[in-house]
Amino acid sequence: MKYMMLIHQGDSPTPLTPEKWAALPAEEQARIGADYQAINQTPGVQPGVGLQLPETATTVRVADGQTLTTDGPFVETKEALGGYFIFEADDLDAAIELAARVPAARLGGAVEIRPVQEW
Amino acid sequence: MVDGPAEAFRQEWGRVLAALIGILGDFELAEEAAQEAFATAAERWPREGVPSNPANWLVTTGRNRAIDALRRRRVLAEKTRLLAAEAEEATEMDVDRAIPDERLELLFTCCHPALATEAQVALTLRTLGGLSTAEIARAFLVPEPTMAQRLVRAKAKIKAAGIPFRVPPDHLLPERMAAVTATIYLIFNEGYGGRGELAGEAIRLGGALTELMPDEPEAHGLLALMLLLEARRAARTSPAGEIVLLADQDRRLYDAAAVAAGRVALERALALRGRGPYVVQAAIASLHAEEPRDWEQIAALYAELTRLTDSPVVELNRAVATAEAYGPATGLALIERIDGLDSYRYLHSARGELLARIGRTEDARAAFERALDLIDDEAEHRLIARKLRDLSP
Question: Which residues on chain B are in Cβ contact (under 8 Å) with A115?
């Protein structure tokens, strides 16, 4: 099975939110970095990308041939996607275990596991 | 020995379906196959006699039907060819070889935390209990198409999301075991409220769980608890349909066989050094079946249960038991310390009861009135209204 692991930062501190990030003890910052690195090195993981803050998002819709452009993400800002990676695993249990290791999941965010459509 | 297809259906459905899912790796396909196998049995067994090993016969027949169906559909061409090759070897089947019992795998799959609780319950009843979609819909008071859709969605998620068909590895087992026991107990409680067929079904599932996990104390604890509670069914309501409180119940109405069976299961759980929440609750239920009741012991067990569950509802039960053991004022003091149950009707009815006993009639009246506001069950409403009338003016 191939899963897309969608990381929602929620309220969790990241280097993109310098004030909250600075409030974390240095060893916690280091641990978060190391955890993400370990995930990227886990067999079956295809690292994805991190995204800039949802405030930088632009949402586009087309209605009656007209392009409508709005500021901000499609979902609520605090529910917006922060990053993703792909994980190829035997089953959902393996994906759940890996998701639980994503720092955002323990810091106020969450990880959504979505099976990838395969033909 | 099996009397005929109807009896075989109840006894064998879960096992046959579990085996077919194990073989075919697909819930939907396996369920269709099982249905066809049972339909074929219904047609043939009365004429040709029941085979010596009904479960094997049903699994073999179901598997062959599934392979035929796959072949006819001509989808997943590779898989079909693979299955066809296997089928040729196996058509003569293995009538004597034991089919592995995969009901436990099935149970853990149905109770996987990635499924919504209501889906877990419906799926467990459908697959292991062999209840029809219509029966499950009736039991949960939802329209049949709603229940059918719930089941279809759950099966689709199992397949699409890759929920494994297996007994979880040791490091996941405690958490997943808790999900399984919670699902069975939820089914039991649906039935405890009146729909007796569900309570019986939950007890059957609990019995199967103890067979499948004989060394798991909480499985025995759950079975013991359900049996001991179910034993009181006849005593819980008066002939007029009024609720009879535990303290007023006529123990002669308790089902002695169920009490005895519950205590056997409890002994087993304790022998396995079980100290989990179901074991403790079963121990409490067992004490309630004794005369006179050992309220001190019951209060102590509730204290233990509060420690295990950190639940204010359990703490309320402890307060009530404490009131019986050490007097209403002591129990009331515990109730007043409970947080977060202000909209829980039993908190107010219990509080009213204890206030009445220590003569704080006006406070008791207010508490009973608050309880009445929160109750929507008619029999409960009548019970509290009666207590309110009985308060001395």
Answer: 160-162
Average pLDDT over residues A47-53: 91
Q: What is the pLDDT averaged over residues B281-301? A: 94
**Using the beta-carbon criterion (under 8 Å), do B161 and A92 form an inter-chain contact?**
yes
Percent of chain B with pLDDT over 70: 90
* Confidence at residue B78, expressed as pLDDT on a 0 to 100 scale: 58
pLDDT digits (tens, 9 = 90+) for B218-236: 999 999 999 999 999 889 8
Q: With an 8 Å Cβ cutoff, are B161 and A115 in contact?
A: yes
Reported as a pLDDT band with limits 50, 70 and 90, residue A78 is confident
CATH of residue A83: 3.30.70.1060
CA distances from A97 to A89, A92, B208, B228 (A): 11, 9, 29, 38
Q: Which residue of A has its CA nearest to B169?
A: A93
Residues facing A6 on adjacent strands: A84, A112
Within B169-255, residue ranges assigned H as helices are: 173-192, 196-212, 217-230, 233-236
> Chain B residues with CB inside 8 Å of A93's CB?
163-164, 168, 172
CA distance B160 to chain A (A): 7
Q: Which fold has domain B319-393?
A: 1.25.40
- Over range B44-63, report the average pLDDT: 91
Lowest mean pLDDT among A62-71, B158-167, B239-248: B239-248
Its pTM stands at 0.84
SS3 B149: helix
CB A113 within 8 A of CB A95: yes
pLDDT at B82: 57
Average confidence score pLDDT of chain B = 88
Nearest to A115 among B162, B168, B172 (CB): B162
Q: Are B75 and B26 in contact (CB under 8 A)?
A: no
Contact B163 A91 (CB under 8 A): yes
Q: Which of A70-76's residues contact partners 24+ apart within 8 Å by CB, and which partners? A: none
Classify the C-alpha dihedral B61-B28-B88-B166 as positive or negative.
negative
Q: What is the mean pLDDT of residues A4-27?
A: 92
Q: Where are the domains of chain B?
A: 5-101, 104-295+308-318, 319-393
Inter-chain CB proximity A93 and B172 less than 8 Å: yes
* Number of structural domains found in chain A: 1
Surface of A (40-69) touching B: CB under 8 A: none
Name chain A contacts of B111, Cβ cutoff 8 Å: none
- Measure in Å the smallest separation between the Cα of B157 and chain A Cα atoms: 10
Locate B204 and state its tokens: 């059957």
**Which range of residues forms the domain containing residue A96?**
2-115
**Which phi-psi region, left, alpha or beta, contains residue B102 (left: φ > 0; alpha: ψ -120 to 50)?**
alpha
Q: Which residue of chain B comes nearest to A97, CA vs CA?
A: B172
State yes or no: ipTM above 0.90. Answer: no
